[in-house]
## 1
Amino acid sequence: MTDAAKFIFDFLLLSNWLFLAYFLLVNSFYLLLLLSATWEMRQHNLAIRGEMRWRILGSRLAPQISILAPAHNEAATVRDSVQSLLTLYYPNLEVVLVNDGSTDETMAVLAREFELVSIHPIYRQQVRTKPVRGLYVSRIYPNLLVVNKENGGKADALNAGLNLATSKLVCAIDADTLVEPDALQRMVRPFLMSDEVVAAGGTIRIANGSGVEGGRVVAPRVPRRPLAGIQVVEYLRAFVVGRLGWANFGDNLVISGAFGLFLREAVIAIGGYEKETVGEDMEIVARLRRHGYEKGTPCRVAFLPDPVAWTEAPETWRDLASQRDRWYRGLAEVLWRHRRLFFNPRYGALGMVVYPYFLCIELLAPIVEALGFVALTVGLAAQAVDQHFAILLFLAAYGYGLILSVITLLFEEVCFRRYNRMRDRCLLLAWALLENLGYRQLTVLWRLRGLAKLLLGGHEWGAMERRGFEQQRA
Amino acid sequence: MPAVSEIINKVIFLEGLALALTMVCIFGHALWVRWYETYYGPRLSRARESLTQILDADEAFERKQTPRASASIEALSSLPRRLQIRLFLSLARNLSGHQKKAVGDLAVRVGLLARAERNLQSPRWWRRLHAARLLTVLDVGDRAIPRLLTDRHALVRAQGAEWAGEHPGPELIKALLELLNDSAKFCRFTAQSSLLRMEALPVPFISEYILRASGPALEAALEVALGLAESRLLGPALKLCDDPAPTVQALAARLLGQIGGKDGLTALSKLLGHPEAMVRAAACRALGKLGEWPSAPALARALRDPAWDVRRAAGLGLRSLGSPGILLLRRAVSDEDRFARDMARQVLEIPASTLVRAVS
């Protein structure tokens, strides 16, 4: 064997061992987060058992909440969405619907269904947005405010809502999010508990396949279609391991754009949502936290497992690919924008633990996984590693991952029990098993495509074809 | 490589075992829950039904040995402690008067209250908390709960404060006022809410407290005072207009806007010249709220204020004064100050039908 061949042989062997170590490390870290989530869940349950929320929120001092709901071409669903928001169980609620330059009948439907009348409030544009064409309130529901503005994207619509909202707290949601009736009552808790909290996130679940009536998920079901079903397992893992696990350490960096509650003043102080990114939900949290550390102002981000909002997951490969590629681009953009945090002790645990985690695990995972696969294939071909090693690598990456997924399902069963039927439990297990056989590898490819797009300067969102909840009546 | 294959076998065995065990736990838990619901579901319904019958009956529960009461106790005793608590919590929350008392008596007879009182001494915070919650819902615990107001765990202290809100009395009011200085926000919030629930009773205590408190405790007390908006608070509010903290002065201005009075008007007019915009804006809002037309010229001058908040509050204040205010707003439309002109024009453009919303 020549020196060069020996070098390549040793390099392949070493890199394969490194990949094995990486997967073991990553999965062990997930296990640690899972244990942390278990502890956090226990503490949370102990604190809320027997709590009289209605009594607390019946107080004249309970904070008002403005729901910011951006809508773009939602004529078919806007009536039901607004109705369901107006009937949430929260005593002091304002709904700010922002019509973001819809070209369909959205505005006409709103005007007809809610008897809108034009108003002229004196407000200050604290965050710059595209021009507002008109402001309306409903004659039937005085707490409904409709903002009609030129199209500027979701971040711009949320910023317009921020300018117009009158509450101390603002809840940013997606137009198609189905918020559970008591979710806001639960979500407001961290703001009552501490002056340090500037944002709080809740759990997002997938509504595909579930029974929906009047904008409410009335019969949660696990989807029978594999693509949506696997995403249920993915979301469970992400919210239990990713969010709740980190919440115990007090260091969340992500609040889902589909459902998050923010201190309005804090968001305005940092200039509102960033329009030049596809990951505006993660970006705003990163900026809020960074600003807090830099200015010495409150910057805690809380996560609560029990306020739940349901969303529709993509059901076609094309939509899913587009979503994942966008998420990954968003993650990469945010990490790049806030690269100053990396191992910077000035930002405490955010700089020393959370940022490095997102960089080394969330961002690098698909790259390492793809490289690992290539290195293993070449290593096997060059006989630098044998099939035993390949099996070991497979067990460390996928076997260990599968165990974590199944433990998350146990967590769901014991703590939430949203899916009561045995068939749903079996389906969840089946989707957890199937996730590693093709789906996971495809998500790696999509994310790499997102990275390539980002490097080539791509900024598009991509549109998702929605089936809508109306077809899913219980 | 026999060593590697041995490792692989071990890993496969361990992963398989972990998977199998987790699956057993998932399905085992599901089956256990199903059994629990099947076994205790009907018992729970029976207990709820017999309790409801007692509550529906138009009889005093003091006659404790009635057959109906014995049947209820028997039905309740067949339930595990956790279900008993859940049942009492769900029922008692919606009751009051003699019905609540009847439920409380039943809780005593099934031994729940004795246990809850014992748990109030527990070193574990959640036991104390859950016991306090049960006692609060059942509206009992006069002897045991007041000392929870100084508990070492914030949630327990807050629960004590919540209970105190339903039991107004001088000692408890004083304890609640002390909680306004608590390090935990939730305790402060619950104490404030409880004081507000007591309505006029805490007013003399608050009047005295806000003159000696400072910092966040003073602000919290002023928020309560704002909710109560009693004329007896005028004196302290006037004094606090000279407090060194602008946030306190702004709150005092708001309080004067709720109470009114000639002295209040004078103090508010003086605050219009305060260096802090927050205080000037609060004074403008308060003057607008009081609706006293002599304050119109001062508000008209405030339209030229460099701070937007102050100009807005002054404009809306003028608008809410009616004719004199509108006259001054019309004059301000041709004011030499561009910002005063803009604000006057914007305020005059508000249709009368939506003015209330704009002011609020």
## 2
Amino acid sequence: MTDARTAILGRLKAADAGATTSVPSEDFTTVLGRGWSAEERLARLRRNMEAVHTEFLDARGADWVRAVHAWLVEQNLANLLYAPETPVGRRLGQSWPGLGPNLVPYERPMAEWKSGLFQGISAGISGTRGGIAATGTLILWTDADEPRTLSLIPPVHIAVLEVDRLYDTMLQAMRDQNWAAAMPTNLVFVSGPSKTADIEQTLAYGVHGPKRVLVVLT
Amino acid sequence: MPTTEFRDASVKALANPELRANFRRAMDGLISKRAELFAQGQDWAPLRALGAAAKLNALANLPVLLEKLEAKLIANGVQVHWAETIDEGNEIVKTIMAKRGAKRAVKGKSMVSEEMHLNHALEAEGIEVIEADLGEYIIQLDHETPSHIIMPAIHKNKKQIAKLMFEKIKNAQYSEDVDEMTALARHVLREKFEHADVGFSGVNFAVVETGTLVLVENEGNGRMCTTVPPVHIAIMGLEKVVERLDQVPALLNLLTRSATGQPVTTYINMITGPRRPGEKDGPEEMHLLILDNGRSRVFADPELRDTLRCIRCGACMNHCPVYTRVGGHTYPGVYPGPIGKILMPQILGIEAAGDLPHASALCEACTEICPVGIPIGDLLVRLRREGARPSHGPIAVKGAGAQGTAREALIWRGWRAVYSAPALYRLTMWGLTRFGRMFPSWLPGLSAWTEVRAKPVFAKQTLHELAERAGISDD
């Protein structure tokens, strides 16, 4: 449809020539750092996420792999899908206890085991690229090692968050990690379990994405 | 002059107490949630300035930015398509699907796809398209269109939805419990996501710098549609462009707070291309369809161009006294409320939607809360004027002048004559104050007012006379 392209751009350019729009300058102060301390960042992230039913497991100073294992046992969850080549995945692979919930590696392309992924997985575990305190948001960076659906299709999503990787705002994280230089195919921000208010504005959790989100603090 | 379609539909809507209660409850809820959030932060003014600047910058450089976006997306592996009309857009989608032999599609919430009547076009080809957003799914079950751009099923209450789901979904149990209804939709739609050949999505922001499509949602259906099926087709109006990634956080903040009073949505999805080699999931094939459908014509007028700043948050309808009373289905076209009142007459033309700019008290509640500062009130007045008499811009508003009548022109000519001749003015005022009350209420020109209101009563003396008597001098 090169004709449509030429016609549309032609009209826009013809119009543009006659118009003068002045663009105001941008002051980013309001969306940048808030000067919060590390404790305050964590407290805010937690408060914001708990307000929308996110669960937390504080494994700081402990073995988080064992803590996750114990949580799955307690919640009666049969297995855990993980990405074996990520830092989080390697830790899991090394020290997952032999008994109890199974560790299922995400090794094959999704298309080859779609129904298994949809029907046979109780929880998925992903890493994070940090969190955003102002809104209570996890930054999920997907790539060849960390599939997109790991945090989407299993009914429970477990996310490992290093508490020293918290930012005040999204813009701060964006600049600090220089996202614009090399975006992944899918950069996802998660602020809690899937929810809807489409029926009479009544909040209900677990529509299409995970019904539960557990943040493991390390 | 307000005419038939909107007016008749309004009368019907106003007489439906259940519908009015549904909208009143919802809009009150949305207004107070938004107000709470902006009261906390104290950052409304600087945020709004950032939002407006990002959109103004995009519009000031629109053709160049669109070309750059296209180049960046192609480099990222995305196929870019352009459509001047909705028919062209639907043909492009059909061709993409035919090439893959695709028969089953799932769709995330997209107002542009509503504008294209995409479902209708695809169903005519024997393709199944399932709306995956819960609200959209509900109204699709009832063969309806959205009554609100953010909350499409807001005109229905819990009981109505429970009944609908029970009747339309196979093997459904009747339940008025919102959690149970939600679980039922999850169950039905999970199967659809798993087996769909194509996933559709809209676009909230298209970032030129990185070639990234930004999508905002709470349910996860948007992520499903853009991640699970082997083909992802995104559709956007050509105004969705943002130049740089660092402009996105402020816009996201404004969008989610204005739309539903949330500090953030559950998911923000930034998509920068299809699956790369070695990746295990994500679509093999990704397309972006850029739709014009009258937008380049809107762009041609420097004043009306501001219509294209809109980020589709819906706050203007939530705060509109007219929308709250008549509801979204009263408006012709896809976009209701104040944004619809300025957009639809320009897209559909004055003949089809020229009565919309008149369906406003010009209270400017919309102008006040618009997160990107669109001067909606001014544009309503401008479009009223275009309705009666086209201005002399390079490209006129579609159907401009269609509402002008000889009678109205005559009345204004008379008004001008009276106001430009002092003697005639004095004589007219004297006459109106003495005999004005004798006008019958059925008089053409008066009847539109007196049909639903008391006839205005002229004072016995002019203000000028009263002032003179009180000793106030003419200076």
